[in-house]
Amino acid sequence: MNAPSSAGAAPLARYAASRRMGDYVFLSGVIAVDPAAGRIVRGYDDIPAEAAARIGRTGEFSCDIKEGPILAQSWYVLDRIRQTIEAEGGRMEDVFKLVQYFRNLDHFPLYNRVRKLFYPDQPPVSTVVEVSGLMPTDDILIEVEGTAYLPLRRPE
Amino acid sequence: MNAPSSAGAAPLARYAASRRMGDYVFLSGVIAVDPAAGRIVRGYDDIPAEAAARIGRTGEFSCDIKEGPILAQSWYVLDRIRQTIEAEGGRMEDVFKLVQYFRNLDHFPLYNRVRKLFYPDQPPVSTVVEVSGLMPTDDILIEVEGTAYLPLRRPE
Amino acid sequence: MNAPSSAGAAPLARYAASRRMGDYVFLSGVIAVDPAAGRIVRGYDDIPAEAAARIGRTGEFSCDIKEGPILAQSWYVLDRIRQTIEAEGGRMEDVFKLVQYFRNLDHFPLYNRVRKLFYPDQPPVSTVVEVSGLMPTDDILIEVEGTAYLPLRRPE
Amino acid sequence: MNAPSSAGAAPLARYAASRRMGDYVFLSGVIAVDPAAGRIVRGYDDIPAEAAARIGRTGEFSCDIKEGPILAQSWYVLDRIRQTIEAEGGRMEDVFKLVQYFRNLDHFPLYNRVRKLFYPDQPPVSTVVEVSGLMPTDDILIEVEGTAYLPLRRPE
Amino acid sequence: MNAPSSAGAAPLARYAASRRMGDYVFLSGVIAVDPAAGRIVRGYDDIPAEAAARIGRTGEFSCDIKEGPILAQSWYVLDRIRQTIEAEGGRMEDVFKLVQYFRNLDHFPLYNRVRKLFYPDQPPVSTVVEVSGLMPTDDILIEVEGTAYLPLRRPE
Amino acid sequence: MNAPSSAGAAPLARYAASRRMGDYVFLSGVIAVDPAAGRIVRGYDDIPAEAAARIGRTGEFSCDIKEGPILAQSWYVLDRIRQTIEAEGGRMEDVFKLVQYFRNLDHFPLYNRVRKLFYPDQPPVSTVVEVSGLMPTDDILIEVEGTAYLPLRRPE
User: Fold this and answer.
1) How far does CA C41 lie from the centroid of its chain?
2) Most distant CA pair in chain F: distance in Å?
3) Cross-referenced Pfam families, in alphabetical order (chains A, B, C, D, E, F) (predicted)?
4) What does the alpha-carbon distance between residue F101 and residue E100 come to, in Å, rounded to a whole number?
């Protein structure tokens, strides 16, 4: 019942991507690294074109090179959280709490724009701080830790 | 039942100030910004005079200008947490866990003095770190994230 | 039932080392300070010799002075978490989630090596960030906050 | 007799990889650049898989990306020294002296672990310093200069 | 004949303090660490009083705290080189070449004063550079690597 | 036989410019200071005009002021090494090993161009690093330490 979930993708290091404990699902902090390929998401080219278009790709080089990294990482990280909770049988809106670690808080408005796409209705409980470093390299601009409520017996 | 709480005040960005999930209430990280007025708490003058006196206002300019910002923010943030949990039907002591993010850990002893006023009996579980930035501006010296336990059916 | 736990050791400041709330036990962030002696763990000499040997003491001065501080602190912190959860009637594997704050993320691989000794089977849910400061002094290299699931009525 | 040796590989610039002079063989400082391919060794993927496994590859992305560069360069450099001395008719243990230039002395324990694999018995005479730069780019983390004793007439 | 020398003291890491190879004795770089005690020489108090007096201890606090660290380390390092070569059957003047690595070249005149005490007659061949770091900690201000000529058959 | 050589010029401090030991001649690290005049070589004007022309003087002010210092120092230092070994009865090509300390590795290609003039045939064994400082002032851009092989009895 409290078995480790292999939900989402193989983790970067030896830790669980998520764990159901009682009525809650706890997620590890997620960064924009494709663990299968061992590839860091550095911009629009590293995410599906459709997603890039939706989050704001302009096609203008100087804009996209500035905003692309944080927008693409924001999308990738939130999409991984969505995949993880769906593998547990839930939906994005069940992830009711996010702790967000930025390398640069100037990125917050851009991240926030992407987050609204994942939370069109009810926004999550949220904590936002800027930290001095994230794993595994300085290319990583954001890490997001989610907590979900997914009761074993849904209230009737 | 798990409806978003409008407890406390309207948040700065699009997030919930708190969410009840099962027997727990999860609060967003709180900073010393009056969301109605969009005003940052910068010192004793931005909180009620009675509170300023209680947390250590000396009336001496050079002291108050040094200690005022962190003491006033500490009071404001913890008082907001109190208001939020009371709007959920609980009390400060139900907020059993605090994660505290400082811009400067030299402020910890001053914050700690204020926290004791809010927790006269049972101290909370606590994590304290210094981060490189907090939202929305460099005036913000502290952010506190609380978690409360407020069982739907209080044990008889 | 939700009484404060004196599990583990007396904390540095006025906070609870851990709190049971419903089916969960929440731990305060742990740093490598022996609260009884008020002594910071600075290297292999500050932990039991057997532990030092197990986590990688080489006996070569220049290696041990480099790697000793983070390895010894990693061991001390995780061992304190183990003691705390055992005082609550649980085991290390019940601590299913860790938030890890580093002063220098280059220390992660060394910490990770120690963590595997405490989690030989099932790894925990994990968040890792680098912060700009930790309490109480710059000697502190890591703080770890744990959360455990320890149902009051173990499933039959 | 004192002819320049083409032992090892073609050097980056115009210098000899090694020179026998009397009973000694002097080696140029070696860095982790494959001179044939003009490729810098940046991690485990740039050295043979068997070597990567032996020096500590974990398979965990975030560890390997942190430790891989210095471990792989350490192995590559020492292996090049081994190849060079073997081309002169000697063995690694004949390289009795090493001067080691690091970009970051925190890498010393990791390098030291690799060096032990090349010197299982008799350790060499050693000098270790941290310098502010190495050729040809900032990717280079270590340079090692070896000296070997290989008498023309082995003592009977 | 070319056996590793345990001359001098047990090394910091796994390396030989010196090695005789043919007619030469090669010494590892020496730093001011007492390897038996694992203690770094930080000032006059860490060397014999008689030596401290001879190299310039004034008894005035503000002078001694400034000059003591480099003077004491200079004496300690050169004295270790002397002990090592004497254990090989030679004398200080047989150490004909020194490579000297400083953390701060402003220390050179002070070091030079001490070196003259060890080389009253014939000065050695010398190379002097400032490096960005020395093992094992920032307390180390100087490292000196010596080479000696000690023919197996002294010329008649 | 192992008498100190006054070859080359009187050194800056109290050290030998070179020492013959057995079949080898060891040179002190050489910097571009004219010890007789106590003058630092700062550009083309401080070396013979014929040499300046040969190493690349353009006569264009903005080029010469940029490249002059390192080119002139490179020439001066290598020429001093040549003089020293010739005073010992050898030739430049007998100096088979060079350790080169730069203040800025961007100077390497310019130095390398000059070195080829001194080693038209057989290049020496070479080690190149960038250090944080050289004696006696920040005007010094390079220090070169040479080792020569000059057997007492030349092979017949």
Assistant:
1) 12
2) 53
3) Ribonuc_L-PSP
4) 13
| E-state strands within chain B | 4-5, 18-21, 24-27, 33-34, 39-40, 95-102, 125-130, 133-134, 142-149
Q: Where are the domains of chain C?
A: 4-149
Average pLDDT over residues C31-50: 92
Residue from the list D61, D63, D66 with its beta carbon closest to the beta carbon of A33: D61
Supply the CATH classification number for the domain D4-149. Answer: 3.30.1330.40
What DSSP string describes chain F?
--PEE--SS--SSSSBSEEEETTEEEE--B-SEETTTTEE--SGGGS-HHHHHHHT--S-HHHHHHHHHHHHHHHHHHHHHHHHHHHTT--GGGEEEEEEEES-GGGHHHHHHHHHHH-SSSPPEEEEEE-SEESS-TT--EEEEEEEE--SS---
Structure confidence by residue, pLDDT tens digits, F61-76: 888 999 999 999 999 9
Residue C32 pLDDT: 97
For residue C18, pLDDT over 70 is answered with yes
Contact predicate D84/D136, CB 8 Å = no
Distant-in-sequence, close-in-space partners of C129: CB < 8 Å, separation ≥ 6: A29, A101, A131, A133, A134, A143, C100, C101, C102
Residue B156 has pLDDT above 60, yes or no: no
Nearest residue in D to E4, CA atom: D122
Nearest Cα neighbor of F26 from F84, F112, F100, F102 is: F84
Residues 31-60 of C with CB under 8 A from D: 58, 60
CA gap E140, F3 in Å, rounded = 34
Return the ∠ at Cα B69 (arms to B66 and B73), rounded to 5°: 150
Is the confidence at residue F14, as pLDDT, over 80? no
With contact defined as 3+ CB pairs under 8 Å, the chains touching F are: D, E
> So what's the pLDDT on residue F57?
93
Summarize pLDDT for A101-116 with one digit per residue, the tens: 999 999 999 999 999 9
Q: A interface mutation test: which of C102, C126, C131 has the most A CBs within 10 A?
A: C126
Give the three-state DSSP class for B67.
helix
CB-CB: which of D19, D22, D131 is closest to F97? D19
Contact of F118 with D9, CB cutoff 8 Å:
no
What tens digit of pLDDT does each residue of A65-85 get? 999 999 999 999 999 999 999
Answer for the pair A26, A18: CB distance below 8 angstroms, yes or no: yes
Q: Give the span between the Cα atoms of A34 and A46, in whole angstroms.
A: 9
Dihedral through CA A127, CA A132, CA A134, CA A135, nearest 10? -150
Which residues lie below 8 Å from residue A64, measured CB to CB, with a gap of 6+? Answer: A43, A44, A57, A58
Residue C7 pLDDT > 90, yes or no?
no
The confidence score (pLDDT) of residue E46 equals 95
Query: Is A35 in Cβ contact with D61 (below 8 Å)?
Result: yes
Question: Residue A15: which of C104, C105, C124 has the nearest Cβ?
Answer: C124
Cβ-contact D125, D97 below 8 angstroms: yes
What DSSP assignment string belongs to D92-127? Answer: GGGEEEEEEEES-GGGHHHHHHHHHHH-SSSPPEEE
Instruction: Write down the pLDDT at residue D26.
Output: 98
Chains F and B touch (3+ CB pairs under 8 A): no
Nearest to F105 by CA among F86, F79, F83, F131: F131
Does residue C21 sit at the A interface (CB-CB below 8 Å)?
no
β-strands D18-21, D4-5: how paired? antiparallel
C105–A135 C-beta distance less than 8 A? yes
ipTM of the complex: 0.90
A16 or E20: which leads in pLDDT:
E20
**A38/D61 CB distance under 8 A:** yes
Nearest CA in chain C to B23: C22
Describe the crossing of helices D61-87 and C108-118 by its angle, rounded to 10 degrees: 110
